[in-house]
Amino acid sequence: MTPRGTDVEQVELANTAFYECLERGDFDELSALWLDDEISCVHPGWPVLSGRGEVLRSYALIMAHTDYIQFFLTDVKVSVMGDTALVTCTENILSGGPADEESGELGPLVGQLVVATNAFRRTPDGWRLWAHHGSPVLADADGDDDD
């Protein structure tokens, strides 16, 4: 196995860990995946968030207001150049609203497609997130027009 292949595998693992932390609502582990210095994040429909405080605060809010979320990643592509890596993927998201207070049942499930770019940097502690950018998929990928 080449060192490049090893880097790709390590970046894939770091990327998977990012989404698994979100699914579990594990804020501490999610925080540990991000770099300590200049980071940025764009959630679909949000402005650019810069700096560790703003970025992590956004994830704390998302986790606090999301009772259920699951990511099915498709079209995952990893590119590594030196100490920088780029992951592009499609996030097939299934999420549920707040549970009904009386029955305790989860609210209706909603599906969403988001294309994402995750930038990672190599550190002595492994690959860490440098930036995340998610954009909603609004158009049919086949280019079919219903008009």
TrEMBL record:
Residues 11-137 form the SnoaL-like domain. It holds the Pfam family SnoaL_3. InterPro entries: NTF2-like_dom_sf (IPR032710), SnoaL-like (IPR037401). This is Nuclear transport factor 2 family protein. It comes from the Bacteria.
